[in-house]
Amino acid sequence: MDIAGALSVDHLKFLADGFKVTLYIAFVSIVLSFIIGIVLGTLRYAKIKFLSKVVAVIVETIRNMPLLLIIFFTFFALPEVGLKLSPTAAAISALTLFESAMLAEIVRSGLNSIHKGQIEAARSSGLTYIQTLWHIVMPQALRRMVPPIVSQFISLLKDTSLCVIIALPEFMHNAQIIYAQNVNYVIPVFVVVALMYFIVNYCLSLIARRLESRQA
C-alpha cells in the first residue's frame, strides 16, 4: 500500500476535479428533477381525466427500471435515433428522468396526506380547485415532503457514481484512473473516495433528520 504515492498533490487535485463534476451533475439533476417531479406528482394527484393515467404509467415504468439501464439508453441508444448527447448531458438526462419519477411519487403521497376536510373547507369558502391546491394543500404538503425529498437527493448523489460506465470524468472515474496506475494505490484512493461521499451524504442526512424532527 503506497499512501504517499496514491495521495500525491497531483492525484488529490485530479480527484477534486472529479468531485466537482460529481457535485455539478448532482446539483443540476436535483434542480431539474425537483421541478419536474412536482409537476408530475401534482398531475397524478389532481386525477385529471386521461392525463393523470398517462403520467401514472410513465412514472411507474421509469420507477421500476434500473438507473443503469436508463444511463445506457441516454448515452448509447439515443444516438441511434439522431440524438447524440455528451457524457455530461447524458448523465444529467438519465438522473433527472429517474429522480423525477421517484420524486413524483413522493409529491403525490405528500399531497394525499393532507386531510380532505381542509380541501372541502377551502372550496366551500369560494376558492377554486387550483387556488386550493396552490394556497392550502401544496404549502403543507411540501413541509411534510422535505425529509424524504432530501433522502432522495442523497441517493441521487450516490447514484452519480454509476455514470462511470459512460466515461463521465466524475469522482469514481478519476479514482479508477489513479488506482489503475498502481495496485498499491487502490486502498488509499478508495478510502478518500468513501470519506468524501460519507461527509457530503452525512451532512445531508443530518439536514433531513433535523427537518424531520421539526415535523414531529
TrEMBL record:
<keyword id="KW-0813">Transport</keyword>
<protein>
    <submittedName>
        <fullName>Polar amino acid ABC transporter inner membrane protein</fullName>
    </submittedName>
</protein>
<dbReference type="GO" id="GO:0022857">
    <property type="term" value="F:transmembrane transporter activity"/>
</dbReference>
<dbReference type="GO" id="GO:0006865">
    <property type="term" value="P:amino acid transport"/>
</dbReference>
<dbReference type="InterPro" id="IPR043429">
    <property type="entry name" value="ArtM/GltK/GlnP/TcyL/YhdX-like"/>
</dbReference>
<feature type="transmembrane region" description="Helical">
    <location>
        <begin position="55"/>
        <end position="77"/>
    </location>
</feature>
<keyword id="KW-0812">Transmembrane</keyword>
<feature type="transmembrane region" description="Helical">
    <location>
        <begin position="185"/>
        <end position="208"/>
    </location>
</feature>
<feature type="domain" description="ABC transmembrane type-1">
    <location>
        <begin position="19"/>
        <end position="208"/>
    </location>
</feature>
<keyword id="KW-0472">Membrane</keyword>
<dbReference type="InterPro" id="IPR000515">
    <property type="entry name" value="MetI-like"/>
</dbReference>
<keyword id="KW-0029">Amino-acid transport</keyword>
<keyword id="KW-1133">Transmembrane helix</keyword>
<dbReference type="GO" id="GO:0043190">
    <property type="term" value="C:ATP-binding cassette (ABC) transporter complex"/>
</dbReference>
<dbReference type="InterPro" id="IPR010065">
    <property type="entry name" value="AA_ABC_transptr_permease_3TM"/>
</dbReference>
<dbReference type="Pfam" id="PF00528">
    <property type="entry name" value="BPD_transp_1"/>
</dbReference>
<dbReference type="InterPro" id="IPR035906">
    <property type="entry name" value="MetI-like_sf"/>
</dbReference>
<comment type="similarity">
    <text>Belongs to the binding-protein-dependent transport system permease family.</text>
</comment>
<keyword id="KW-1003">Cell membrane</keyword>
<feature type="transmembrane region" description="Helical">
    <location>
        <begin position="21"/>
        <end position="43"/>
    </location>
</feature>
